[in-house]
Task: structure prediction
Amino acid sequence: MGTRRVLLAGATGLVGAEILRGLLADPSVTSVCSLGRRKPALEHVKLTALVVDFANLPHLPDAEEVYLALGTTIKAAGSQGAFRAVDFEANLAVAKAALVCGVRRVGLVSAMGADARSSVFYSRVKGELEEALGKLPFEGLVIARPSLLVGDRERLGQTIRLGERIGFWLGNVLRPLIPSNYVPIEAAKVAATLLAAVPTARGKRICLSGEMQLAPDRS
Result:
């Protein structure tokens, strides 16, 4: 019988949906509590889906692990401030709330180039979140830094971005010439990496795209 209780923020996103699918299929997981601005489309006996205000989170159920997959774009958010409210403030709020309910291991979906001292706003916010999580007393922190994400956005009701189409096409054409960390990566590979690493994580680990390309298929 499984004993793992898990929190997941961002289950309706590209990577978050893959993490959710993997958790629900894992017999070692007894319960998954998803936190989001809307509920995932699927239902499952293990899943409790909470619609929450990330600026005013309720007390969360006891758990051992949390996966942070909340994210947006500056264009979709409407401003840099709104982007930061999701990608930094909401993720950090979930992490702090998770500590209170017993969570000791965290998996984060970050981004390639994340750097708290970057001159690029997007990369700087991602890096600041990584640093903030690193200061919290988790036993294990696993950070995934994917390159351009590939996945079925239409299935999730998301718009397929032109830049992603072009990047995916170029990535396939030029794959032999592109360093592995820059090749477009399937969201399922990112999810598989975190699902494999987080349950036994100790200390801080950063997983780059090249490494995650080698993650086994968990389907």
The radius of gyration is 16 Å. The longest strand covers residues 29-36. The chain is about 35% helix and 20% strand. Residues 80-100 form the longest helix (21 residues).
